[in-house]
Amino acid sequence: MHCLAHLINPKLLLTSLFAVLLSCSVHAAHPNLVITDNDVQSMRQAIDVQGRFSSAYHGLKKQVDQQIAQPITVPIPKDGGGGYTHERHKKNYQLMYNAGIIYQLSQDKQYAHFVRDMLLQYAEMYPELDVHPKRKVKSQNPGKLFWQSLNEAVWLVYTIQAYDLIHDALSASEVEQIEQQLLRPFALFLSEGQPSTFNKVHNHGTWATAGVGMAGYVLNEPEWVEKALYDLDKSGKGGFLKQLDELFSPQGYYNEGPYYQRYALMPFVTFGKAINNNEPQRNIFEYRDGVLLKAIDTTIQLSYNGLFFPINDAIKSKGIDTIELVHGVTVAYGLTGDPGYLDIAQKQDQIILSGDGLKVAQALDKNAAQPYQFKSVAFGDGNDGKQGALVIMRSQVGGDQALLFKPAGQGLGHGHFDKLTWQYYDHGNEIVSDYGAARFLNVEAKYGGRYLPENGSYAKQTVAHNTVVVDEISHFDGNVDLGNANAPTLNYFETNQYGTVASGEIHTAYQGVELKRMLALVNLPELESTIALDVFDIRADRQHQLDLPLHYQGQLIETNFALMANTKQLSALGEKNGYQHLWLKGQGKPEQELAKVSWLNDNGRFYTQTSLVNGNETFLFTQIGANDPNFNLRNEQGFIRRVANKKHHQFISVLEPHGEYNPSKEYTLDASSKVTGIEYSEQGDLALIRLVIADREFLIAINQLPDAESLQSRTFNYQNKTLTLNGRLAVYVLNNQ
Known about the structure:
Layout: H1 3-8, H2 17-25, H3 37-46, H4 52-68, H5 84-106, H6 109-125, H7 149-166, H8 172-190, H9 195-198, H10 203-218, H11 222-230, H12 240-246, H13 258-278, H14 287-301, E1 303-304, E2 307-308, H15 323-336, H16 339-348, H17 355-365, E3 377-380, E4 389-395, E5 401-406, E6 421-426, E7 429-432, H18 453-459, E8 469-470, H19 480-485, E9 489-496, E10 499-506, E11 513-524, E12 529-552, E13 555-559, E14 564-565, E15 582-588, E16 593-600, E17 606-613, E18 618-624, E19 637-658, E20 660-662, E21 667-669, E22 675-683, E23 686-693, E24 696-703, E25 714-718, E26 721-725, E27 729-733
Antiparallel strand pairs: 1-2, 3-4, 4-5, 5-6, 6-7, 8-12, 9-10, 10-11, 11-12, 12-19, 13-16, 14-15, 15-18, 16-17, 17-19, 18-19, 20-21, 22-23, 23-24, 24-27, 25-26
Helix pairs in contact: 2-8, 4-5, 5-6, 5-7, 6-7, 6-8, 7-8, 7-10, 8-10, 10-11, 10-13, 13-14, 13-15, 14-15, 15-16, 15-17
Organism: Aliiglaciecola litoralis
Subcellular location: Periplasm
Pfam families: Alginate_lyase (PF05426), Hepar_II_III_C (PF07940)
């Protein structure tokens, strides 16, 4: 509605002059955030053309029609995460957003009126609200609608878009009431009212700056946009751009890990798109060499079989179909036209009703998708990319495998004390596992849906991961600040036709202890298989007890050494640092040479870890669940290799997938390990691993020089044979006839 029409309309004579001026001051064009007027024109044409976009529109319209037929409910906030009022307010912002889109495409004002009426109810309630009754006073800033301000910011990100979409269907008095009683005080509460969160370089700060910055564009408050970008005092010490500088590595890896990377992606991409539409001269998607687009691509790479690698505080069921990444892939395709993104969009099977979503839908209708290329890659951690790395190794030899190695940084408050840990995946399943987070997301009966106490007492502790624990004490003694200040070093990473190898080390996880680990995913095409090689070297200035846990998914099948099982009474393995949550189920002490532990995974394959032992290691078999009165923890299995009174020790092992178990057709193949020999030796910087498997003798050679530029073709002698190594990793078949 034009400003002049407001002024000459006799029905507005009783409307305050302020409201008229306010109406005149806002942007002439709405919508003006992620969806623009040009987008709307194209989308309106597409909804009448058979295809994915039309189907998505009619599907969403049907959902919205069912929901708006119900009475509007805007309850007084009282519940924590997962409770009724919490979930109702979440549903409300999503419903307002969806109804706003349907209004723009259908031009049916009933949808705009629904959003208007809900916003007016919020505007009636909001001025009377105090901070949320279930707030966590000590740990973080509270919201008013929600128990934490993070959810409050998410509400604003969605709601300001909904308001933008229906703005032009409102009267001046409705604009005044919604803006003055709701949107403006809401944005000010999240910014000036909570400066510690708004200025924080953290995903909470990202959501807050995105919401307030987008409100600035819609409410014609350019000063809000500047503060969202550069900190409340516009110093650049905080704000959205500082978050882009500090939270991502140059390759686009987010330092809290994949779970929080996909969550933070939504405000980064949404606000980024709004900036690009309103101020293209800022070149936001070119900022830091295109770090936002790199972040979208990296998020995809941080997944296996559709699920994100569950490091740090991660819910293990989250995957590439999460709505945040759907939006990310949509924007990435809209900006780049890369057909690999269409492959991911096809797997996500969700079309976003936006201008970029229309591009995705039309391209998929034309079968333009090309396979997305998952790679073996080392993602540098930290804003400079030099604070360790997260390493992904992949292979297609004998099936789809992935090995995740974590010589990465702490990951702020959501990080775990798990330096140099690893996980392994094969044939679609997790084999060597990480617990992830101890949390039942939005299940109010479980601690209000928040992180459980066991997240700190077990899931974050080192023993919950697959890395060395010294003297039953977690890395950095569980001190987050110390962990954030000390990252591992990635010594090297290389991938070639023989597989992928990486090495990392850290000297600050324990005083006077050096931890160094080399992991390799090695291709053995002669056997149509791969093996995972693990060499963990510990050197200390005095004697320690050293534990190396391995947590696995599946049923224990056999060991090649005697086990003493605790069949009548169980006790916890320790008293603190996570050990208090592990039942000791049994133990054994293998004799010298090879120790084997085999298990069967749900994917129908067998897995055997074969370890080099010298008779002084004890294997402790554990199950999670001790000291867990509320049954909060999953009862998963593991075993710990333990040595005592050691200043220097090497844990050396090979993980071997083999065989098949088919209960439906009642057959079992190759249930027993075929590894019959492992020898480890070094020639200077050259690590040599002789592996005898399935009557074949292999030699794995790894050049451990840290400087890749100094790697040269070199010859060496092994068993009276002269061999040549080009690069860092090679495999030789010694008895190949």
